[in-house]
Amino acid sequence: MRRYYFHNVFLSNGWTTGALVSVSAEGFVTQIDVVPEHGSMAVAGAEVIAGIVVPGMANAHSHAFQRGMAGNTEFRLSARDSFWTWRNAMYALANRIEPDDLQILATQLFVEMLKGGYTSVAEFHYLHRQTNGAPYAGANVLWDAIGQAASTAGIGLTFLPTLYQTSDFGGRRLNPEQARFACDTDEFLRAVEDRIGAARRNADRDAARLQVTGVAFHSLRAVPLENLQRVALRLREIDPGMPLHIHVAEQQLEVKACVRETGRRPIELLLDTGLLDQYWCLVHATHATPKELKGIADAQASVCVSISTEANLGDGFFDTARFLKAGGRLCVGSDSQSTVSPTEELRWLEYQSRLRKKRRAVLATKGEPHVGTRLWRDAAQHGARAIGQPAGAIEVGRRADWLVLDAAHPSMVGAAPDRALDHLLFAGGDAAIRDVMVAGRWVIKDRRHEVDGELQPRFAALMQRLTLAE
Ligand SMILES: [Zn+2]
User: Which of 34, 320, 335, 366 could potentially form a cystine with 306 if both were Cys, beta carbons 3.0 to 4.6 Å apart?
Assistant: First the structure.
């Protein structure tokens, strides 16, 4: 059992000055006492934390291998560049990555996530096979590379093996460049069940405690609806609370193709199945109608928005204000890794709404007038729930995942105690994040991770090689 004394902390019931927090050997918060004056007997033996402590953020959507292309697709190939031309570059990268490469990319990425304030991540993983399209014999080394990278970094991981079967609506065969993603429904279910069985057997190991298994369906383009329904129903028998994620309505072309093939829009199709519940997360949902947004909110499913990626790819605007007004649960993710920063994601949720509505403080509420506090608190809680991690708030029973903001950083000095998250989102960004704890362990201390020195040359050499091979 360890104890920490926080001068200024955002607890689940709000900003608190002076709190003594006890953390178990397993990394969970077991007790919180409000102790306004430190120096008393109550803080003896506690580590005193100078700075402002806030809950860590969940990254609800990530494709780790895409870290290998950040910054490398920002030039014009034709006047019609779009998501679809970017996707060709992404496929080319996907078909060059070997398991060791993936582990280096993912380790670097997960360390960057921690430094940026993400303390857990949902990895939406559709690289399943060898570069020639043949399955790996025995254990899936690409899946294992992600788990090992997360253990090395010390980040919470929700691994989402991703079902990927067709190249478009109507059951179209995969294209040759998609061969690595292919999965047979029964084999996929068996592999997921094996993974869950192994996790249950190893539940007492430290690394296993930070790792959760869910499932993703790549999209309605890539998974025939009847297969999605069959797999989702079977998974609910195995684990009623398993996170289930899907990319949906990111592109207008995709919505049109779905209507052409089925007579329904993609989110309508998902709502029609009756499967959506609080353990589903719809990624993007960019081109959702007001009725669809209400349907998602009513089903208590989450939406994961990744504005950095949606802006990078020219996808379109998600109507955040409308979705939140309908009671929708919103979380954020770094998706294509063009940048890896929850502060940037949340800042742009608000800025996008300001630009559209020509008003300020659009996403604040009567109950929480501070935009930074409202967005960070809700995205942390909804994100943790959407990815099945026992975190998202500093309270008894949740995992001890938090960030320490440097109160002396120029972006933070002078911040009133209840404005630290406004400063983080709108004035300081990531530079104020000094220390990061996951499951009761300091993984970032003074902006450094213990593997930085060894990792950086390996990552640099890999990026050099990947860029040369383009
Ligand atoms: Zn994605």
Answer: 335
324-328, Cβ contacts within 8 angstroms, sequence gap of 24 or more: 324/363, 326/293, 326/294, 326/297, 326/298, 327/297, 328/293, 328/296, 328/297, 328/302, 328/303
Q: What is the mean pLDDT of residues 289-310?
A: 97
What digits encode the pLDDT tens for the residues 160-188? Answer: 999 999 999 999 999 999 999 999 999 99
Do 226 and 340 have their domain in common? yes
- Residues around ion ligand 1, judged by CB within 5 A, are 335
- Residue type (1 letter), 353: S
pLDDT tens-digit map of 193-215:
999 998 888 877 766 679 999 99
Gap from CA of 55 to ligand 1 centroid (Å): 24
Task: Measure 367 CA to ligand 1 centroid, in angstroms.
Answer: 33
DSSP 8-class letter at 317: -
C-beta of residue 71 within 8 angstroms of C-beta of residue 356: no
Q: In this structure, are 176 and 295 located in the same domain?
A: yes
How many structural domains compose the chain? Answer: 2
Asked whether residue 242 falls in the same domain as residue 150, the answer is: yes
> To 10 degrees, the CA torsion angle through 442, 447, 453, 454?
50
Active-site residues, by number, are: 284, 335
Tell if the pTM clears 0.70, that is, is over it: yes
Cα 414 to ligand 1 centroid, rounded to whole Å: 38
